[in-house]
Amino acid sequence: MNSLGKVTNDVDESANGSAGRTVLRMQMAIHVLSVGPVAHGNMVHDVLLELPNFRLSIARDYSGLWAIPKQELIHVAILHNTFSSSELEDLCRFIRRRWPHAGILMIQRGEGFLDDALYDDRVVPNADPEVLLSVIQRLNGRWQGWRSGDVEL
Fold first, then answer.
1. What's the rounded Cα separation, in Å, for the pair 23 and 68?
2. Does CATH number 1.10.3720.10 belong to domain 29-148?
3. What pLDDT is stored for residue 47 in this prediction?
4. What gap in Å lies between CA 45 and CA 37, rounded to an integer?
5. How far is 61 from 72, CA to CA, in rounded Å?
6. What are the angstrom distances between the C-alpha of 28 and each of 49, 54, 55?
7. Percent of the chain with pLDDT over 90
8. pLDDT tens digits along 68-109
9. Residues 122-139 as b or e (16 or more Cβ within 10 Å = b)
10. Which residue ranges make up each domain of the chain?
11. d(CA 29, CA 12)
12. Which stretches of the chain score pLDDT less than 50?
């Protein structure tokens, strides 16, 4: 998936410290968890698989979430519009418990299908890829702010 050439392009070689040591800082990929069906033509998968700064994990349903270790750093979870309201509520609650600082993005039309506190943002299923990426990056910025202590949750 990632080649050595691709990894080395993301490395910032800057000398920090003493004794001639070089510290390599890699640009951290945004880890996106997609919850829903794996289908060709899926907006989320098609967009994120082509970009270098994203890591995509997929869980088809609630039971698939259990297979992902809680130690994984999930920045943004995307829930697809294939679930019922009760399933979406269960999924959101599970994600909030397991990865409390992950942003939750719903792919859904309309409003009022869930309590607003259960998710952070929503895009329509046929949104432009640029809109999807913008929302993911904004939600990731919230996560990055939490990591640096700049955001109070």
1. 30
2. no
3. 78
4. 10
5. 18
6. 16, 9, 10
7. 41
8. 998 999 999 999 888 988 999 999 999 999 999 999 999 987
9. bbeeebeeeebbebbeeb
10. 29-148
11. 14
12. 1-26, 146, 150-153
